[in-house]
Amino acid sequence: MESLDLGKTSDRKKDHIDLAFASRVAGQELDTRFYYEPLMSAHPKQGSIIPRVFAGKTFRFPLWVSSMTGGTKEAGTINRNLAKAANEFGFGMGLGSCRIILEDTTHLKDFQLRSIIGDEQALYANLGIAQVENLLSSGKAHLMKELVDKVEADGLIIHINPLQEWMQPEGDIIHEMPLLTIKKAMDIFQGKVIVKEVGQGMGPASLKALMDLPLTAIELAANGGTNFALLELLRADKNQQELHQGIPHLGHTASEMLNWTNRLAESKPLCKDLIVSGGIKDYLDGYYHLEKSTMNAVYGQASSLLKKAREDYETLQAYIKEQIRGYELAQAYLTLRNEADTHE
Predict the structure, then answer these.
(1) Is residue 41 part of a domain?
(2) Dihedral sign from CA coordinates of 314, 316, 322, 325
(3) What are the pLDDT digits (tens) for 215-251?
(4) 36 in a domain, yes or no?
């Protein structure tokens, strides 16, 4: 039996006393999304997360790197760190906008991550709806397939961002209903396609239209995380910021959108995979939304991963390890509350 180190024990107890005053949680601060059941499980064993097949690939951890950055000086380092983590921990990744490498290979190496992420993990290229519309109208639709081949991706993400483009001084005009552009692109591309918003989410009519298409997945990109309309507004002058201050507050939360997708899923839509993103700040948010979804789902993060990936790989690695440990803990002790209890 190990001898008890009274000095260390005393220090630890003193820490407990000092921290107790800062550790009180008011009742109104309690997380009311879950029942906490401390009697119903032992501490979870490492590796207790059951792998799931998503977008045709096996995810050992249900995390998705939501598309963030492309074409910056830091992009290469950030992308390589994220791809290395995706390989180590078994999750998927969407590249930032690949527009910069459509017809110019100067920055191509920053997006060529297959050798790092490996063949077992999902990797998707990414273009905006305005770029896709332009490729279709200019007879260059073949560049979509060439782009995916150049980066050895599994498919293409099309991001829908009308508010961002409208708020951006140098933004592109979207001339056609995005739904029609998506349908045309799918017919020509003939590969795996994911459609996402960029930080405001989508209403029920848009979600239904997408779920009725044979998409590989839909990413919610709800309002609550990185908001690209707000990002562009912050670049504008003060008069524009004052005039358009309401725009960033438009949209839908991830939880609200899951209510709609859960109802729509009852009619057995063609698209059955969902990336829940937008305001997912930690593993508790991720666990809650995945438990709430009746569709096959993973949770997406952007800015929180970006912050860690900008530093060094070890920082990112430690962050994801703790997310996994936390998710395992949530699985062991937390279940979703009944709707009626949540609002008591």
Answers:
(1) no
(2) negative
(3) 999 999 998 877 777 777 777 778 777 777 887 788 9
(4) no
